[in-house]
Amino acid sequence: MSRTALLLLADGRFPAGGHAHSGGMEAAVASGCVHDTAGLEAFCRGRLHTAGLTAAGLAAAAATGHDPLALDEAADTRTPAPALRRIARSLGRQLMRAARVTWPGAELDHLARHRPQGAHQPIVLGVTARAAGLSPLDAAHAAAYESVGGPATAAVRLLSLDPFEATSVLARLAGDCDAVAAAAAEAAERVAAEGVTVLPAVSAPLLDITGEQHAARPVRLFAS
Amino acid sequence: MHLDHPLTMPHRYTHSADPERPDGSHRALRIGFGGPVGSGKTATVAALCRTLRDRLSIAVVTNDIYTQEDAAFLRREAVLPPERITAVETGACPHTAIRDDISANLEAVEQLEQDLGPLDLILIESGGDNLTATFSRGLADTQVFVIDVASGDDIPRKGGPGITTADLLVVNKTDLAPYVGADLDTMRADTRRQRGDLPYAFTSLTAPDGIRPVTDWVTERLAAWHAGVPR
Amino acid sequence: MTAAAAQVSAGESSTPRAKDLPTARAHPAGLHATARLTAVHNGRTTTLPLLHSDGPFHLRRLRPRGDRARVCVLGAMSAPLGGDRLALDITAGARTRLEVTTAAATIALRGSTTDPATYDVRLTAGEDASLHWLPRPLISTRGSTLHQTYRVELTATSHLLLREEQLLGRTAEPPGHLSTRLTVRRDGRPVLDQHTVYGAPAPAWDGPAVLGGHRATGQLLLVAPEPVPLPAPVLLGDPERGHCVLAPLADGAALLATAVAPTPARLRVLLDTALAHVRDATSSL
Q: Is Repeat found in the keyword set (chain A) (predicted)?
């Protein structure tokens, strides 16, 4: 594996559309659930161990080379909120665009051809990791980190939080991120033999509820 | 008209999207409209649509700070049918969406082309930002920077990438000059000094046909685009 | 919370406690019990040839409502306790119409061991069958650990209405640990695969991404043979008094309402309102 490729893929500046998404943070702020650094940390920890773990499992499985279309279906059944399915596919399509230029390859082309409107973002992330020569565990790390990095950046913009405090939240979550990535990669290893049901499917009711509320809001800063 | 050439300004001659469609026809010309808040970007786009919509197939992508506001204005003003106007969210960072990470805007542009069929012109309006915000060449083929007289007659002198390098600089709201004490001659002189031979237009959209200089420039760019002449 | 908890305990005390039902635990180390219920259509109506009570589950016929056969699961003893292995197997055969309820809240208790308890609910509906599973809430109490699974198998022509409500802790009490995996398959294809985990040691389970301090959460799931037209997702409630979203799953023939609320009473109001919207959207109930 190339450690630099992983840094590149996980970098918030990788031009795949993530900057316009708050990962549910804007909705959490709007509903009064998050207003300080402690709230940010609780939000990120909760998202990491639910939606983050599920995304990491899907990404890791895609990075093993397992059929991405089957995994895309598994992502659909793990995403009950239509707004979040729409966002996941839109982000998947944007990541696909960046990935095909950055690490061109037949597997990305194949997925793009079969999901022209976008596959779920974690699936594209996994196939991209594979194209970049990264391991399933790397893909899981990227997905897990992304599940908290987006909300933290958004919280800085939404709440004018101290950026050093927000970054220290991410540093405190490093151990959790590692554990989530390891669990996701371990499940992904079993997919070939046992099927996609072994992948994590952890969900968080509030992310689904507020995700749908956010999509219906006429005025918002972030797309999700 | 343009003195810069590929050796001195190579970035001005790169496209990330092929100007031709797979069938060999030209895709739509994409024009970016940037500039500070309140300078009249939306009004300029609206006036262009009204003037050109009968002879060209046009679509608009807006990048609002708060999603949908500019798009809602354009829809309310009925400058185009609603399906020709798309809003892109920018996550409180409008310049990122048009320069550093253009993927959401490219998605919007391509979706419009896919839904509406061949288009002549796609106008991409950036969210109001500062004087440094410019469009990536991967997103816009050519770009217009809109400033206004009422924000201070020293703005052209201050310069910045938008003012010095945009393919067209629009200095809007000239009708307000007497009320805000702006010296148009100074602004004109500063503009020339900042832009060399790059074109600019002083406009007052409240005047009849006040958009004319911009319309003419767009028509010219479109003709050059179809002729395959690089910018 | 108090009013809601009172409502729950009222539900408990109203549980029929027939004298002939066992009340003491026969297997203090952990109980293994599987109750089974099968409905078939005899050409005229839905009948219940198999009602197999076991362990804490006492199955009782209720008077049918219209052409829908009804069964109530009575809690015959405290369950689940730590170490218990409980299962409930419900099959609605082809063309049957069946509703299954519970008489009282199911209360997960610690028991004499901190071992996890398991509770597996298997719901199977055949061709043109309609199965409603509408139990009372599950309450996770301090010190308990329960792994619950719902495995729902449907055919392309089955109807399902499923409600599940969970209350995390009794009044002024932290909950135990409650994990629930819900998988719904139609014609062998997954429709919904969902896992929720609440209560320590689950990280940040009551934080702003998961339950936001609410103690009651629940879902209402409708699966129909045809796509269910819902013009737009239905948004109910507010962050303080509880909120809920009703929206279609990726398989458009399924609608899911997801709710969180401060009390079980508020949760029920939200899910009942969602159900009214479901009834408006489809004639298949």
A: no
